[in-house]
Amino acid sequence: MIKGGSLCRVNGTPRLIEGLAFPREEDELKSSYYNSLTTWIDIDGLLAKFGLDRKDVLEGSDKIQDAVHEFSKRLPTYVTIKDVKKRWGNGQEDVHPVAQFEKVRHL
């Protein structure tokens, strides 16, 4: 399975579109350009930038959504919180919440 995004034109504007945002999975494979990036970060440092801590995340605090919206106002990007599944042996899987940051440069 491909994980990342493709460079596409949306209403005439270049945009990086996540694979899951394509109407049909096979459309992602038609793209000429592709983006995938893994970055290691300091979790506590990142949470501090949001005004959150691990307890907020582990307890599913109501503060999370507002913190993400406020933080994203300070960046020329958008931030998405989503769950990523990691499958391992015998049909078992773990679900991990991740913060995804996106920025598209105007060409």
Order of strands side by side in the largest beta sheet? 2-1-3
How helical, in percent, are the residues?
25-40%
User: Kindly, what is the distance between the CA atoms of the first and last residues, rounded to a whole number of angstroms?
Assistant: 29 Å
The major pleated sheet works out as: 3 strands, antiparallel
Number of domains: 2
Low-confidence stretches: none
Q: Write down the secondary-structure element order.
A: EEHEHHHEE
Anisotropy-based shape = globular
The number of E-state strands comes to: 5
Structure notes:
- The chain is globular and about 40 Å long.
- It has two domains: 1-38, no CATH class; 43-107, no CATH class.
- The two termini are 29 Å apart.
- The strands form two sheets. A three-stranded antiparallel β-sheet has the order 2-1-3, with no helix packed on it. Strands 4-5 form a two-stranded antiparallel ribbon.
- A hairpin with a 3-residue loop joins strand 4 (78-88) and strand 5.
- It contains four helices and five strands.
- The model has no long low-confidence stretch (mean pLDDT 78).
- The protein is an alpha+beta fold and 107 residues long.
